[in-house]
Structure formats: C-alpha cells, structure tokens
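Trying the structure run again after the queue cleared.
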Amino acid sequence: MRLNYIRKMFFKIQETSLWRCGLSQARTPKTHSEILPNFIFVASRSINLLNRAQKTTNKT
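Done. Tokens:
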C-alpha cells in the first residue's frame, strides 16, 4: 500500500460528503485502538465509491 496515495485520498475524502456519510455509518470510536479501523473502513469504502464513479465516467 502506498502511504502517500492513502494520505492524499484521506484529505480528498475528508472534503467530500462521502467522508461524512461514511463517518455517520461507522461506530463512534471509544478508544484510540478503534479510531484506525474506523478510518480504514471509511477510507476503503470511499475509495471504492470513487473508483466506481471513475469507471462510469470513463464509459461515457
């Protein structure tokens, strides 16, 4: 996994509504150890959505 790519995606996703949608569905972290899995869940979910959106725009 390229960390720079993930960092860039993290900041891009943070600015979009996808980030807020993902966060509202993820459980509120109680401890520090729960924050990273939630971030990974939200980031991977958002990246999947962005990839899907890219594929549909490439078709047209």
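The chain has a mean pLDDT of 66. Worth checking whether this holds up in the mutant runs.
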